[in-house]
């Protein structure tokens, strides 16, 4: 008679059934940690900036954009590289787009290379398209290639500090 079970109770049971049915037909909720790809494109991340008071010794590699205002002694590989007016890069540059306002000592490889009027480049430029503004200082050769980034992965034949020749390996002596 005083049962806690609601199975045999008459009353507003019919009113609660539609709520349970709607819960059953609803898709299960996802935990907050699940990744859901969105159809809207993401905002492009901001460029990494190496400030004027920064000196980097070593190579830099990224798939994003880099703006250099300081000094880099090493190679740089990026999507878009902007060399600021106060910047100096001593090494090879490989990027889809290269904009030089400052100083580069080394080879430049890029699909689109632009030297502004304040640019000072000492080295070869391998490009698909190039623009050199009046006033830019450039010492080196310019070579157009359909895919200038292709040769960037090729190993260098000789390090700059390596001697011109190495002693021949000694042949093993047999008895």
From TrEMBL:
PANTHER family: HYPOTHETICAL CYTOSOLIC PROTEIN (PTHR35024), POLYMER-FORMING CYTOSKELETAL PROTEIN (PTHR35024:SF4). Residues 1-23 have a biased composition (Basic and acidic residues). InterPro entries: BacA/B. It comes from Rhodobacter aestuarii. This is Protein CcmA, bactofilin family. Residues 1-44, 137-175 are annotated as: Disordered. It comes from the Bacteria. Belongs to the bactofilin family.
